[in-house]
Amino acid sequence: SQKIEQNSEALNIQEGKTATLTCNYTNYSPAYLQWYRQDPGRGPVFLLLIRENEKEKRKERLKVTFDTTLKQSLFHITASQPADSATYLCALGRDDKIIFGKGTRLHILP
Amino acid sequence: NAGVMQNPRHLVRRRGQEARLRCSPVKGHSHVYWYRQLPEEGLKFMVYLQKENIIDESGMPKERFSAEFPKEGPSILRIQQVVRGDSAAYFCASSPRAGTSTDTQYFGPGTRLTVL
Q1: Tens digits of per-residue pLDDT, A64-97?
Q2: Is residue A33 within 8 Å of A91, Cβ to Cβ?
């Protein structure tokens, strides 16, 4: 069955460093991949979308890579700030179907 | 410009009662998605609706659960005869066009359902 794995443990990163989150998947060939941010008690907020024919996407301090051979996406936040602390969700999609990972909790330490 | 609105934000029901969750999409959006999220779990797709039509309900349990998106008014997710296992956060998302590969989904704040 389709499976998405994100860092199961919370990630603690020192302020100013680059945070890197991993999303691995099996038994699936997504046409696109999305990353969302979710704060406690709130709904997810869309951050970035990358398609299967794209290797890398950037938006301000965010960078996403997508390796369909390794079946992996990396999500980077450069110059991290305490305000970046949240849970980050990876989502894979084809057509209108999206599958979400469980998310990785990121703590940026001041 | 209001985003997706969901109400109530918190809902407490006793076993056997009915739960009605409402979702008003972003103005102008005609596509609505419902998801369920259990603690420490990912979002699970339940149903995808367009105005007056259910497009995909493959993630929704066949019994007790139903959804609608009428021509006028909010989308409703209805859970009949709730059980403790229905306790979860239910999120609604909307998009302006079909195809989540081209349009992002805008999520509401969720309704937290607790079944006693």
Answers
A1: 999 999 999 999 999 999 999 999 999 998 877 7
A2: yes
